[in-house]
Every structure is written in structure tokens, then in C-alpha cells.
Amino acid sequence: MQGLTMTATPQAQCTLEVALGDRSYPIHIGPGLLGDPRWIAPHLAGKQVMIVTNSVVAPLYLERLKAGLADDLEVREVVLPDGEATKNLAHVERIWDALLEAGFNRRCTLIALGGGVIGDMTGFAAACYQRGVAFVQVPTTLLAQVDSSVGGKTGVNHPRGKNMLGAFWQPRAVLVDTDTLATLPPGELSAGLAEVIKYGLIRDADFLGWLEEAMPALRGLDVPALTQAIERSCAIKSAIVAEDETEQGVRALLNLGHTFGHAIEAHQGYGSWLHGEAVATGMLMAAALSARLGWLSGADVARVEAILEAAGLPRQAPSGMGSKAFLDHMRRDKKNLDHRLRLILLRSLGDACIYDETPLETLTALIEDFPRR
Amino acid sequence: MQGLTMTATPQAQCTLEVALGDRSYPIHIGPGLLGDPRWIAPHLAGKQVMIVTNSVVAPLYLERLKAGLADDLEVREVVLPDGEATKNLAHVERIWDALLEAGFNRRCTLIALGGGVIGDMTGFAAACYQRGVAFVQVPTTLLAQVDSSVGGKTGVNHPRGKNMLGAFWQPRAVLVDTDTLATLPPGELSAGLAEVIKYGLIRDADFLGWLEEAMPALRGLDVPALTQAIERSCAIKSAIVAEDETEQGVRALLNLGHTFGHAIEAHQGYGSWLHGEAVATGMLMAAALSARLGWLSGADVARVEAILEAAGLPRQAPSGMGSKAFLDHMRRDKKNLDHRLRLILLRSLGDACIYDETPLETLTALIEDFPRR
């Protein structure tokens, strides 16, 4: 990692602050956080704690998390099935049922232990239980660590669209224990790297350059490199969220690749492609469209394709998914206003913009010309 | 209405402002608001409008409301069944399904046309649709006009408790068209008067005195008297909500009679007693308990009983509902923290307080001694 512009001496542990006035909260990043009582205790609202996790993460980390909770707490748990297909209202209702069965009051705290699906559902459950209770994010996937656990977006999918139901609800704290990445399947690590690359593409050309060099170390689970990538990603996301908590403007930039990506996920059925895989392909589509609009060069697009390949990510749309299928799903995107299609595109590498004037024929041609698997 | 301390010349139309910073909104009160385009148009977020109403209100007021909406709007409607028994997640899902079927985006506006149940469900649907969209309250019952449509509490019941799921979500505006009270059944008018009396009991002894004299006019649907009662009720509620939007403190005073009342509703099955009827009995129980604690005189309790009787409200608990049933339900109240029972009681008429030191034996004896139907 010579010649990089990032921190000269990588820190083993660091803390960022998400600045949102009286809803501000810390993100702690580093190894060994999970079983250490110092990190969770300050963020509990009362004595009642409900841990929400899934059947894959529970055997790996549930006991370690519980070991870090004080003996005088009333700790319960809900273990949900794994996967994006569970991200629906019926599973959030299971969390609510468990809270009511346990007689938990509005000073209880929910802890989300798992990936983005668990975090989004737990946050939504917390947002609406007795009109809002405390919750703490303990993300165990790279994707959740750099993206979904930060920023307060919570929710579930609806058969007619992804994340259609939800709330903005900020956690009391985010604990990123980098040790949890040791058990992450390589495909999910790559999916997380898609979002890391996204931060470089939308806001930070230096970080993008650093990532191009650091990619082998990241895929080899080098902890200082991972810590640094997570820290820079969370810092970029926090800054954008602090600027625009409820996505009235600049926050939409975080959706680079997501309009195309959500269409792929919806068309293929949620859970068939990993979210990060769909976003990776979507980012390449956004880059290629930006080139057709004259903003990026062919070399820029090739750089995007190369870093996605280095991260082990797909660069082709699903075979059999035509432009009509893409456009039908994209027209339902939450960013659209009064029937205008809004896309996040790249003015240059490291500088994204919101654009709603793409000619339909340019977009259609891009989708049709884009490589299929 | 001679000798009263209220407005000398009752206004036909008035506007109050709920002061909540960038979430502030107006409450317009008066006759003829429903079909007049001037009142709704300024509060619509975009061109898409979803009216949510029920099968009783729709035939009475839906067309009048629609007549006041401009021709270039995309107006849809959801007509739900009537009654408290419909206030559940399944019916909120019907609103979400309708929004998604119509392809409505995050700049749509929901309009709640109906009583408290419609307002609470529509507000909750708006709070969670695409993480929050605009909504306008058009309450058509006295109860909703003076209570549930003001203050941003939204939500639904759960089989294990009332209003257990929900969100704080403020409307863009509240339109109280007093003409709608002409079709309100007398029992529902009385139920609304219970909440009006509550404002006098918790904060305003003068208003209580005015109500004692004005009660025949109110029950006779005298429009200036009703307008004045609604205005003063909304003013007291707005002031309390502005002070404490998310019920960390003083807002809990609005729950006078509600802890007992919710227990009655839950025990009898939601919809069997009207909410206002249960609250009326609950307020008399709270007054009687306040007397046992030495704060109210017997004459004070008799005054409470007399004004409830004048309003046509019940003053007896359900036969067959013992102290155990009351206490079991009361222990699940959202106001309780860490297993302490918190009640709203009266230091004097016009001055309520939050109290969590009632000896269990005093409370149990009060419940057991209280008259049954």
C-alpha cells in the first residue's frame, strides 16, 4: 500500500461521529468490539434489550454479543431466516410480536446483529414500536458496515418494489467489529466492495485511486486496509447524510448504480443477485450512460470496469432482461418525481450528479447495447 | 353563554398554528371548508392525491371533498370499513397497496377523511410510505377534530395492545369543517365531548366552567359554541404538543383517563365501547383516585361526574371487569417505564400531573370500589 494518500499509519480502532444535532451518533470501527461491554452499554436506553439476528449470524456471533451485555439487563432475542427474501412486513411483525410478548416498553433497545436486511428490518421495527424506540446497529457484513447501517434509512420491500415501506430512524450507535469479516463468504465481501467503490466514484477520486491499489489487500482480508476502507466510506456517507438526512437533494448521489441495480434485483427476484452485485452492474451502466452523454471518456469507463473486475463483481446485465423490463422497474424508483426519470450519473470519476434529462432513446439504446451474461 | 371568559364574539372561521419548527402546520376551523379549493390546495406536495376514508363517511363527504380539488390532480381513493376494529396493520397495508398500484411517488399527498381511526391509519401509512410522504387531516368527528387529528400521533392497534405500532408524523394541515358534525350520531358527539372536557380538567379551569354552562348548546349542535370548544381544545393540545412533541414529559398529561380507558377498551374488545366513553369513565376513575390521594375534594369529583353526565357519557366501569383485568392491561401501557405504573392524576381541577407512586393497594381498592354498570 505504498504511495497512497490515505492515513499513513492505519489505526486499529477509530470512531466517527454522524452529525445530526440531537440525533447524532458515533460509529466505532475496529476489532474485538463485539464482546467488550464498554462499547454497547452507553447506548442502551433502559434495561430491556431485544437482539434481532438471523439463523446464519446467530451461531457465529450471538453469544459473543451477549457476553458483552451486563447481567442486570433483560435480554431477549429474535432469530429470523437469512436472506433478502425475508425483508418484508411479515418478518418485522415477528419482531413486534416478540417485543409485545416480552412486555417491552418504550425505553427498550433493539440491537441489529447481522447484515443489511437485519439492520433495515430492525431499524424499521424500532421506528414504529410504540412510535419509536432506541436501536443499535452491529453490522456483520462489509455491505452493512459501509452502507446500510449508517444514515438511518430503514424499511422493507413490497412485492411491487424494493424499500417501498420504511422510515428514517437513526441508530444510537453503530459498532463495526472488523473481526466479523473473517466469516464472510467471498461473494459477500465483493458485494460490500461495490459500495466502497461507489464512494470513490461519487465523491473522492483519491480514494478511488487508493482502492485500485489496495484491492488485493482488501480481498485478502488485510485488517488495516479494511479498517481504512470502512472508515473512509463511512466518513463520506456520514458527511452526505449530515448534509441531507431525508434525501431532499445531495443524499440521492448515494444511489449511484442503484436505479439500474434495483431493476435487476426486482426483475430477477429479490435474493437472486446480491444487492452489491446488482449495484456494481448498475454503476457500470451509469458510467457507460455518462460516457454517451459526453461526460466520461472511454478510458474512464474502462477504469470503472477494471476496478469492479478486480473486486470480483459482475459487469454484465442478466441475460433475457430487455430494455422494457429495465424501464418498467426504473419508472417506479422512489427518486422519480411526477413521472420524470431521475438518474445518478458521473460528471467525472469522483463527481456524481442527479440528472433527469436523459433522452429516453439514449437510455434505451444504452440498455440494449449493454453486455448480457 | 353569559358571563363566560371565552371569546365575546364567536368567530365563524379561525386558524390556529401548531408551532413545531419546520414541521409547523395550521388548523383551520369553520363551516364550509370541505368543498372550498382555497383550503386544501396550498398543502398538497405534488399532483398525486390519495383520499383515505371509510364506508360511512364516503357517501356523506367524499364528493364534497373531491369538488374542492383542482382538475389537474391525479386523485385516487381507498374506502376502508368503518370502526375501531379495522385499526390494524392489515388495513394500513391496503392503503400501501393502493399507493403502489397507482404508482404514487414520494411527492404524493394522503388526505384522511373521517374519524380518529381513519386519521391514525392514514397518518401511519403516510409516515412509512417511501419513508414518509405528506398528509392532510380532514377530521369528520368531534373526537378527531379536538384530539387525534392534532399532534402527529399515528398508528394502529396490535392484538396485545392499543396503538402499539405507529409513528410521530405531523400533517401538513388540519381542516375542521364544522358542517360535518351535523351527521354525527349523538353518542359520537358525546364521545368527542369527553376529550373536550379533558382539556378543561388537565389545564384550564375557566374552560371547564365554560363547558359546564355551554353543554346544552354543544349537545344541541350550536355551531358558534362548537367552534369555540374546538378552538380552545385544539389550542390547549397544540401548546402541549409544541412543548413536547414526542411525549417525553408534559404531553403525557393528554392521557388523563386513558390508562383506565384503554384497559376498558382492550378488555371489552376494541370497538365495543367508544374511545371517548372509555376515557370518560377513566377520567372519573382518575379523579376518584386523586381524591383518595388527598388532592381533590368530594365536591370536585362530583363536578367531574356531573359534567360527564351532562355530556351523555358513562360514569361506571363494565360489569364483570375486576381489578386484576384492569391492572393486567394497565401494566402494558406505553407510559410505564421499567415496570412502574405511571398514571395521569389531578392535583386540582384544571391541573393534571404525572404520578408513578400510587400504592398498589390504593389503586386496587379504588378499582374494586368503583361503580359497575
Automatic annotation (TrEMBL), chains A, B:
Q: What detail does the entry give on cofactor binding?
A: Binds 1 divalent metal cation per subunit. Can use either Co(2+) or Zn(2+).
Q: Please state what the protein is called.
A: 3-dehydroquinate synthase
Q: Where does Zn(2+) bind?
A: E195, H258, H275
What's the stated role of this polypeptide?
A: Catalyzes the conversion of 3-deoxy-D-arabino-heptulosonate 7-phosphate (DAHP) to dehydroquinate (DHQ).
What pathway is this protein a component of?
A: Metabolic intermediate biosynthesis; chorismate biosynthesis; chorismate from D-erythrose 4-phosphate and phosphoenolpyruvate: step 2/7
Give the UniProt subcellular location, in the record's own words.
Cytoplasm
Specify the enzyme's EC class, one word.
lyase
**Which Pfam families does the entry mention?**
DHQ_synthase, DHQS_C
Give the family from UniProt. Belongs to the sugar phosphate cyclases superfamily. Dehydroquinate synthase family.
Tell me the ranges covered by the 3-dehydroquinate synthase C-terminal domain, including all copies: 192-336
A single Gene Ontology CC term: cytoplasm
- Signal peptide (residue range): none
Q: Which cofactor does it need?
A: Co(2+); Zn(2+); NAD(+)
Q: Where is the 3-dehydroquinate synthase N-terminal domain?
A: 78-189
Keywords assigned by UniProt, alphabetized: Amino-acid biosynthesis, Aromatic amino acid biosynthesis, Cobalt, Cytoplasm, Lyase, Metal-binding, NAD, Nucleotide-binding, Zinc
InterPro entries, per database record: Dehydroquinate_synthase, DHQ_synth_AroB, DHQ_synth_fam, DHQS/DOIS_N, DHQS_C
Tell me which species this is from. Halomonas korlensis
Q: What gene name is given for the protein in this entry? A: aroB
